[in-house]
Give the backbone structure.
Amino acid sequence: MKLRILGCSGGIGGNARTTSMLLDHDILVDAGTGVGDLSLSELSLIDHVFITHSHLDHIACIPLLMDSVGSMRDKPLIVHATEPTLEIIRKHIFNWKIWPDFTQVPNVQQPFMRYQAIQLGNTVELGERRITALPANHVVPAVGFQIDNGAVSLVFSGDTTTNDALWEKVNQIDNLRYLIVETAFSNADHELAVLSKHFCPSLLAEDLLKLKLDPEIYITHLKPGEVDLIMQEISGCVYQFAPRMLQNGQVFEF
């Protein structure tokens, strides 16, 4: 398997792209603004999108993706998310007011897009790839994901904050090699991090003490303009794990 990071920023500007990852050639994990850098032919090959939650920085490119390549495909794109997240997307995005409902275009029998509800803890198997929804603690219904090929697993936290349930599940993954975890704010914005249910370095440090495994750790979703500061603070309080900043364009092969 190959996981390519299309976007890993908490915002836009310059070369920043919001959260999106391409698994092999046909699966997106979130669909932030990084998806827009793919070619039309690459976009047309995407068959599945797994969404952690409904916030715009994680779903922004799904409507434009469907508009761009829906008619080029011979089967619907499947959007996988929990039922509460799907309900938000139905009501607020694909509602004929913000964007057409592509589950009805060109018709209900042969739509460009279908929804597939997932449940926390359940696994979707797509060939050798097993994708499992993990607990997240955010201001809207949210999950993280474990991506597993049988030999190696990668965990993506999604947007979350202090989260005992996540670490309980992660500690049960005996083939965990990579952990991608968010840290959206610097310590100066601790109160905002708590309010918006994101990590800042001090909160991340407290939560990583619950991790009993030793994966490679990568930090994502950093606030533009504070990237260096956040990573400096993380290095100061999470030094025992030697976390690195996730990079746009980075590729994990496992």
Observations:
- The mean pLDDT is 97.
- The chain has one domain: 2-253.
- Residues 227-237 form the longest helix (11 residues).
- The domain at 2-253 is CATH 3.60.15.10 (Metallo-beta-lactamase; Chain A).
